[in-house]
Specification:
- The complex is a heterodimer of chains A (about 425) and B (about 600).
- Chain A is mainly beta and about 425 residues long.
- Chain A folds into 2 domains: about 220 residues, Distorted Sandwich (Adenovirus Type 2 Hexon, domain 4), CATH 2.70.9; about 190 residues, Jelly Rolls (Sandwich), CATH 2.60.120.
- In chain A, about 15% of the residues lie in helices and about 35% in strands.
- In chain A, the strands form 6 sheets. In chain A, strands 1, 3, 7, 8 and 11 form a 5-stranded antiparallel beta sheet that branches. In chain A, strands 12, 14, 20, 22 and 23 form a 5-stranded antiparallel beta sheet that branches. In chain A, strands 13, 17, 18, 19 and 21 form a 5-stranded antiparallel beta sheet that branches.
- In chain A, a hairpin with a 2-residue loop joins β17 and β18.
- The longest helix of chain A is centred in the N-terminal third of the chain and has 12 residues.
- Chain A is globular and about 70 Å long.
- The two termini of chain A are about 35 Å apart.
- Among the domains of chain B are: about 140 residues, no CATH class; about 170 residues, Jelly Rolls.
- Chain B is built from 8 helices and 32 strands.
- The radius of gyration of chain B is 26 Å and the shape is globular.
- The two termini of chain B are about 40 Å apart.
- The model of chain B has no long low-confidence stretch (mean pLDDT about 90).
- Classes of the chains: A mainly beta (about 425), B mainly beta (about 600).
- Chains A and B meet through α1, α2, α5, β12 and α8 of A and α1, β1, β4, α3 and β9 of B.
Chain lengths: ~425, ~600
C-alpha cells in the first residue's frame, strides 16, 4: 500500500533561515532531495519563502517617491535567472532552463489570464497585473521584516510531466541561479537615484515536495524512461533593417519556437525593464516595426510557406499589432484554437511610439502578446528534426538607427530521460 | 499554471505540418454583397481544418454624410461580414451550407465568451474589447465599444488640437476561423478524396455591419458619453441657459476618462446634441417618453457640428477637452452637468453612407503530410471498394418569418436531419433598418435598461445595433415544443420575466444551456441572455442524437402579455446535427 509524505528541504549551500540575495554574494541556491526508497512527484515541487525589496543597503522599504518597480507580470519569477535539475550523485543534467525569468516573461502572460493574475497567482507568486498594484502591495511593503510570503511551482518539463521520479535510482539536485538586482528592479520613470543601492532578498527559503512510498521493494537497476517537453534558450542581437538569424538548434524534436525582443540597453538597467516583452525598437521611445517575417528550415520556408507581411509593411504608422504575427506567436506556445487563458489583448499588445517611457504604462510590463514565433507541430507532439539542419528567421524591420535589440529565442522541444542504475541520459 | 499541453509529451504518429496561403479565385478586392470563392486543391491531400482560417484586410470608409468613428461588430468582429457560407467538393456536391452565418457566429460568440476569448477575437478577428484606459464610470455594463485608443479600424488622435475633419480609418488584418462543421472539426480532412474543397462566402450588406462607439450614442448607455462641464474652461461645473450664445463647450474630465483628446470619441465634422441623461426616460417598449435636449438654434435639425477639438486646461488647472462649433444660441433645454454629448451623425437628413472593402483575401490552410504507409493503406482500401465515412457537427438553418401583430405563434419546422443534437431558435429583428439606423441603434429594437432604486434608469438604456444578428426577447410570455406527438417539456417554459425586461426566467436558461452544450458550445457567459435571446432545446444528451425526419416539429410561442411585440421577426432556427460524408471512389454522398 502506497503512502505519501511531504518533505520540506532547506538549501544545501546556505544555513537554514539564511538571507539569500544576489547583492550579498549568494546568487546560487541549491536544494537536494536525497536518495531514498521512494518516488518523487515532481509536479508537487514548490519553492517557498519570503521576498523582500529594499531601496538601499540599510534595507529600508521603498516609498512612492523611490520610483522603484519590479516586473509585475512575473512576481517572484523575475528573480530566478536559471533553473536546473540534476541527479544528486552523478550530477547528470536532467533539465536546465537558462534565462528562466526571461522565458517566464513570455510564457506566463501568454498562458495565464487576468483573473489568474489577480487571483491565485497574486497570492502564490506575487504577480499583479497592474504595475501600481504591484508597487503598493509587494515593492513598497513597509513590513520589511515580514516581507511577502510566496509559494511557487518551479514550472519546467521535469516538474510538469506527470511521471514520478525514482529517488531510489538517484536523488535530485535543484539549483536556482538568482538574477542581478538591476535586471529585477527598474524605475517607474527615468530616475533611479532613489534605489541605486537597492536590492531584493529571499528569506526562509525552502523546497517542499511530495514523495510516495510504494510499499514495494524498488529495483534501482530497472531502466526508467520518461518523456517531457522542455525549453532551450538562444540569444541573438539584431541591429539592422534586415535581420537574418540562423541557428543550429541541435534538437531532433522541435515543437515550436518563439521569442521576445528587448533593446540591449534595457538589460540590467535600473531605468528600464529588462524583462519586458516588446516588439523591436529603434530608440527607447520608437518602435522598429516588423514588416515581414519568414521562418526557414534548411533555407526553405517552413512551416509557413508564404511571406508573413505585416500591416506595417504597407502602413508604417499603423499601431495595431499584426494579427498573423500575434496568432503565430501565441500558437507557438499553446495551440491558438485551444488557448483558453491569456493576458494578450489589444490593450497591451500593440505597436506604439510613445513619449518617454510608454511601455511601462501599459499593463503587463510591456506587452503580453508581443514576440514572434511559429509552431512546427500542434498535432502529433513529435516535433520536427532540426538536429542536422539550421533554423532561420528572415525579418525585415524598420530598425534604421543604431539601437541593438536583443532577441531571446525559446525552442520548445521534446526530450527523453533514460535512467538505468547510475547511468542517466537525456535524448534531445 | 503549468500548461499541460506545453510541458507534457505526446506519443502519436509524427505528422508533418505546413501552412499554405490560397488566394481567392478572382484575386480581387471585394465589397458588400459580393461572393468570395476559395478552391483548396486536392493536391493538399490532408488538411487540419481547425488550423485553417480566412485572412483578409478590411478597410471601412464613409463615402458621404456626417463624420463619425465607425467599427465592425465588437463581439464577432469581421465575422459579421460573412452572410452565408457554403463548402462543396470540386464536383459541386454541397457538403454543408449555412445561411445566416453571421447570426450563428453571434450566438456562438455571445454565449461562449469570457475576457480571454474576447481578447483573442480582438487580436485576430477584428472584434474590440473594453479599453480600461478610456474606462467609463457611468454605472453601465462594461462596454466593448469604447476603444478609441487601440481601435483597429481608426487611428487614435495624437494631436492635442485639431480642426481637420479628415477621416482616420485604417486597414485591419483579420484572421477568421470558419465556424462550419468541417472547419471546426478536430479530425483531419482528406481533401485528396474529395478532389479538394470549394469554400464560397457571400458578404453581408453594408447596412448590417457597422457600429458607432457606445460612448457617443444616445441609444446605448448614454451615461458613458462625454459630460458637459461649462463654457468657461474653469474646473467647476456651470450650466448654460436657453438663448445663451455658445461657440464651444468644455467636457467634464472627471466623467468617463474624457480628459484628453485621444480619449475623446467624437471627431471634427461630427454632429451632436446635448441630452440630459438624468431626465431621459425610455419605457420598456423602447419609446422615449422624456428627453431634454440642448440644441443649436437656427440650424436645420438643431445639431451642433464640431469644427475643432482642443486639449487644454482652459481657465482652470485640470486638463480637459474643448469642443468648438459654429457660434449660435442654445435652444431646447437649459444645459447643466447632467447633460451628455450624443452623436446625431446617424440621424441626419443626409444619410450616412459607409462601405467596407476586403483586400488580400487568402485562405490559410494547414496542410498535413501523413505517413506514406497511412496514405497507401487508405488508397488501397478505397480502390478495393472501401468507403470512408467522415462525420462532423454542422448547422442547418430553417428560417421562418412572423409578424409583430401575432400573439400566438406556431412555428412549424420541416426538419430533415437524421442525427440532430439540438435546435437554437433566434428571433431576429426583420424590420427594414437603414445603414444609419442600425449603425447608430437609432430607434431600433429596445433591449434593456438598468434599474436604480426600483426605477428604470434610462441613461443605461440599450437599443440593438446588431439588427438581424441577435435575438429579440420582445415580450414573449412562454413557449413549448411539440415533437414526437408530445409537448416537450410537458409544461410551458415561462420566459415572461426575461422578455418583459424586468428580471430572469431561469428555466429557459437551463434549457438554453443544454441546447448550446449539445450544439458544441461551452456556455461561458450568460451576459447576453436578454440581448441575444435564444430559445434552445437539446434533442439528445451525451453522445446521442435524435432523428427528426418524418416528425411534425413545431415551436409554440405566446406573446399574450400586457405589451405586444414591437418588431417583425425572422426566426433563424439552427439545427445542430451530425452530418456524414460517405466517400467511395470518386463519389461523395452527404448523409443528413
Amino acid at each position: 500500500m502506497s503512502k505519501n509524505y511531504n518533505l520540506s528541504i532547506s538549501p544545501a549551500n546556505h544555513l537554514a533561515n539564511a538571507d539569500v540575495s544576489y547583492r550579498n554574494g549568494n546568487p546560487v541556491v541549491r536544494f537536494e532531495i536525497g536518495e531514498s526508497n521512494r518516488v518523487l512527484l515532481p509536479s508537487s515541487l514548490r519553492l517557498v519563502g519570503t521576498y523582500h525589496v529594499y531601496k538601499d543597503a540599510a534595507k529600508a522599504a521603498p516609498v512612492p517617491a523611490t520610483n522603484l518597480e519590479t516586473p509585475s507580470n512575473l512576481g517572484v519569477y523575475a528573480a530566478l535567472d536559471s533553473l536546473s535539475f540534476r541527479t544528486q550523485r552523478s550530477k547528470s543534467e536532467i533539465e536546465t532552463i537558462s534565462g528562466y525569468n526571461s522565458f517566464m516573461s513570455t510564457y506566463l502572460p501568454a498562458t495565464t489570464s487576468l483573473q489568474d493574475g489577480i487571483g491565485h497567482l497574486n497570492e502564490s507568486s506575487l504577480i499583479a497585473p497592474n504595475p501600481q498594484f504591484n508597487r503598493e502591495t509587494v515593492v513598497e511593503n513597509a513590513s520589511v521584516t515580514t516581507g511577502n510570503s510566496f509559494c511557487i511551482p518551479l514550472i519546467s518539463g521535469f516538474t510538469s510531466s506527470q511521471n514520478p521520479y525514482p529517488l531510489y535510482s538517484q536523488g535530485v539536485e535543484v539549483t536556482l541561479q538568482l538574477a542581478p538586482d538591476s535586471q529585477v528592479m527598474f524605475s517607474s520613470g527615468t530616475d533611479s537615484s532613489g534605489f541605486v543601492n537597492g536590492f531584493y532578498e529571499f528569506k526562509d527559503l525552502k523546497l517542499i515536495c511530495e514523495v510516495t512510498d510504494t510499499g514495494e521493494a524498488p529495483d534501482p537497476s530497472a531502466p526508467v524512461t520518461y518523456e517531457y517537453n522542455s525549453i532551450s534558450t538562444f540569444y541573438n542581437t539584431i541591429n539592422s533593417t534586415n535581420a537574418q538569424i540562423s541557428l543550429n538548434l541541435g534538437q531532433s524534436r522541435v515543437l515550436g519556437v518563439f521569442g521576445r525582443f528587448v533593446p540591449t540597453s534595457f538589460i540590467n538597467n535600473l531605468t528600464q525593464n529588462g524583462l519586458a516583452t516588446l516588439y523591436p525598437r529603434k530608440s527607447a521611445t520608437e518602435s522598429a516595426d516588423i514588416q515581414q517575417v519568414v521562418f526557414t528550415r534548411g533555407g526553405e520556408r517552413l512551416p509557413l510557406i508564404y511571406n508573413l507581411d505585416t500591416l506595417q509593411r504597407t502602413t508604417p504608422l499603423d499601431e495595431t499589432a499584426d494579427s498573423q504575427i500575434v496568432r503565430n506567436f501565441l500558437n507557438a506556445i499553446v495551440e491558438f484554437s485551444k488557448l483558453n487563458r491569456t493576458n494578450a489583448s489589444p490593450v497591451n499588445t500593440f505597436v506604439k511610439n510613445d513619449s518617454t517611457y510608454g511601455y511601462k504604462e501599459t499593463l503587463q510590463g510591456g506587452a503580453a502578446g508581443a514576440g514572434i514565433g511559429c509552431a512546427f507541430d500542434v498535432i502529433s507532439g513529435q516535433g520536427l528534426d532540426f538536429s542536422r539542419v539550421p533554423f532561420g528567421i528572415q525579418m525585415e524591420l524598420d530598425l534604421d538607427k543604431d539601437f541593438p535589440n536583443a532577441f531571446y529565442l525559446y525552442v520548445h522541444c521534446k526530450q527523453t530521460l533514460v535512467m538505468s542504475g547510475d547511468n542517466i541520459q537525456v535524448l534531445q | 499554471m503549468p500548461v499541460k499541453s506545453f510541458w507534457s509529451s505526446d506519443n502519436k504518429i509524427p505528422i508533418g505540418q505546413s501552412s499554405v496561403a490560397i488566394p481567392s479565385d478572382n484575386n480581387l478586392n471585394q465589397t458588400a454583397g459580393q461572393k468570395v470563392t476559395f478552391h483548396i486543391p486536392g493536391g493538399t491531400e490532408f488538411i487540419n481544418p481547425k488550423e485553417t482560417y480566412f485572412r483578409c484586410d478590411v478597410k471601412i470608409d464613409i463615402t458621404s454624410g456626417p463624420k463619425t468613428n465607425l467599427q465592425l461588430d465588437s463581439d464577432i468582429g469581421a465575422q459579421v461580414l460573412i452572410r452565408d457560407i457554403t463548402v462543396s467538393t470540386n464536383q459541386g456536391v454541397i457538403l454543408e451550407e449555412i445561411q445566416g452565418y453571421n447570426t450563428l457566429v453571434a450566438a456562438m460568440y455571445d454565449y461562449d465568451t469570457n475576457d480571454n476569448f474576447r481578447n483573442k477575437r480582438a487580436l485576430t478577428e477584428g472584434a474590440t474589447v473594453n479599453n480600461p484606459l478610456v474606462g467609463t464610470n457611468g454605472g453601465c455594463p462594461v462596454l466593448q465599444k469604447n476603444d478609441c485608443l487601440t481601435n483597429p479600424y481608426f487611428k487614435r488622435e495624437t494631436a492635442t488640437t485639431t480642426t481637420s475633419d479628415a477621416l482616420a480609418f485604417k486597414t485591419m488584418k483579420v484572421l477568421l476561423p470558419l465556424h462550419t462543421g468541417i472547419f471546426q472539426n478536430d479530425k483531419v480532412f482528406p481533401t485528396m478524396l474529395t478532389d479538394g474543397l470549394i469554400v464560397t462566402m457571400v458578404l453581408a450588406e453594408n447596412r448590417q455591419v457597422f457600429r458607432q462607439l457606445d460612448t457617443v450614442s444616445k441609444y446605448r448607455f448614454a451615461y458613458n458619453n462625454p459630460h458637459f462641464l461649462n463654457i468657461t474652461g474653469a474646473d467647476a461645473t456651470a450650466g448654460i441657459t436657453v438663448g445663451d450664445n455658445v461657440s464651444h463647450i468644455f467636457v467634464n474630465p472627471a466623467h468617463n476618462s474624457m480628459n484628453s483628446l485621444e480619449n475623446f470619441p467624437f471627431r471634427v465634422g461630427e454632429t451632436f446634441k446635448l441630452l440630459d441623461a438624468r431626465t431621459y426616460v425610455v419605457d420598456s417598449a423602447g419609446a422615449v417618453t422624456t428627453e431634454d435636449v440642448g440644441s443649436a438654434s437656427g440650424v436645420a435639425g438643431g445639431s451642433f457640428t464640431i469644427t475643432g477639438l482642443e486639449e487644454t486646461v482652459g481657465t482652470g488647472a485640470n486638463k480637459k477637452v474643448k469642443v468648438s462649433f459654429a457660434s449660435g444660441s442654445l435652444s431646447g433645454s437649459n444645459v447643466d452637468s447632467d447633460f451628455v454629448m450624443v452623436s446625431t451623425a446617424c440621424e441626419q437628413t443626409a444619410p450616412l453612407v459607409a462601405t467596407f472593402e476586403l483586400s488580400n483575401l487568402e485562405l490559410i490552410v494547414q496542410k498535413l503530410d501523413m505517413p506514406v504507409a497511412y496514405k497507401s493503406s487508405l488508397m488501397n482500401s478505397m480502390k478495393s471498394g472501401g468507403t470512408m465515412v467522415y462525420d462532423f457537427l454542422s448547422y442547418s438553418n430553417y428560417r421562418f418569418s412572423t409578424l409583430k401583430s401575432e400573439s400566438v405563434i406556431n412555428l412549424r419546422l420541416p426538419l430533415q436531419n437524421s442525427r440532430a443534437k439540438a435546435i437554437w431558435c433566434i428571433p431576429t429583428d426583420a424590420e427594414t433598418r437603414s445603414l444609419s439606423q442600425n449603425t447608430g441603434a437609432v430607434s431600433t429594437y429596445f433591449q434593456c435598461q438598468e434599474e436604480y432604486g426600483g426605477t428604470a434608469d434610462s441613461g443605461t438604456s440599450c437599443y440593438s445595433d446588431r439588427v438581424g444578428l441577435e435575438g429579440c426577447a420582445d415580450f414573449c410570455q412562454n413557449y413549448q415544443w411539440l415533437y414526437d406527438n408530445k409537448l416537450q417539456p410537458n409544461r410551458k417554459v415561462e420566459v415572461q420575466k426575461t422578455c418583459d425586461k424586468v428580471s430572469i426566467s431561469q428555466q429557459h436558461l437551463v434549457e438554453l444551456e443544454k441546447a448550446l452544450a449539445m450544439g458544441g458550445i461551452e456556455c461561458r457567459s450568460f451576459r447576453k441572455f436578454n440581448r441575444n435571446f435564444i430559445i434552445g432545446r437539446a434533442l439528445a444528451l451525451g453522445d446521442g442524437s435524435y432523428d427528426t425526419r418524418t416528425k411534425d416539429f413545431s415551436l409554440q410561442l405566446e406573446y399574450t402579455g400586457a405589451v405586444s411585440q414591437q418588431v417583425n421577426k425572422l426566426w433563424n432556427c439552427y439545427v445542430c446535427h451530425i452530418r456524414g460524408l460517405q466517400i467511395s471512389g470518386a463519389d461523395v454522398q452527404v448523409l443528413l
